[in-house]
Amino acid sequence: MKKLSLYIIVFLAIVSGFFIYNSFRLIKENTALKKELKETNAGYDNNIQYAIKLEDSITGFQKKVKELQAEDKFSLQGNPKAAKYLSDIDDQTDWQKYIIDTLLKTNETEGNNPLIPFDGMAGKMKITQAKILNNRWIIARFSDGTYSGEMLLRYDINKDKSIDFKVLDQTLFN
Q1: Is 119 in the same domain as 162?
Q2: Of 71, 90, 125, which one is at a domain's C-terminal end?
Q3: For the chain, N or C: smaller number of CB within 10 Å?
Q4: Which of 71, 101, 121 is the last residue of a domain?
Q5: pLDDT, tens digit (0-9, with 9 covering 90-100), for 82-140
Q6: What is the separation of C-alpha 142 from the centre of its chain, rounded to a whole number of angstroms?
């Protein structure tokens, strides 16, 4: 009986030691995890603050772009009369995109663009950029890859929404 009591006491001491050792180890790991979690949360908080600053910057830039477009009197955004003229034709159409897309489709013809009054010397002459100045005029840049120039176009929108372009003047750079 004494032996059994001694075995039980030794067994309980070993089990208690095991539980005490594991408890201290878990407390140590828990403390390390809490520290790591705080650092991670601090990183997330910094990222959130950075994202908020970026959103504010983007909003500010968008506002500034709209202000600059409104100040540009040689554009549809800066010329309310020209914009109203086009919206009176059809207020559902994004005229800026529609007109530029129609102009750029003239590049799809065989050979040089028929609107460009110069033959390409280093390739086919194509319109590369265009800006709508108002409800009648467009300024466009063209190039064959080596030589380039600019031209002033008049455009007229027909009742069927097709567009006629007429070259008013042009210049070729070397």
Answers
A1: yes
A2: 71
A3: N
A4: 71
A5: 888 888 888 788 888 999 999 999 999 888 899 999 888 888 999 999 999 988 999 99
A6: 26
pLDDT for 151 equals 96
Q: How many domains is the chain built from?
A: 2
CA pair distance 86, 93, nearest whole angstrom: 9
Planar angle of CA 172, 117, 135, nearest 5 degrees: 90
Query: Domain limits at 21?
Result: 1-71
The neighbour count for residue 33, using CB atoms within 10 Å, is: 10
Same domain (yes/no): 87, 67: no
Secondary structure letter of residue 135 according to DSSP: S
Identify each DSSP E strand in the chain by its residue range: 126-132, 137-143, 148-157, 163-173
Q: The dihedral of CA 113, 114, 116, 122: what is its sign?
A: positive
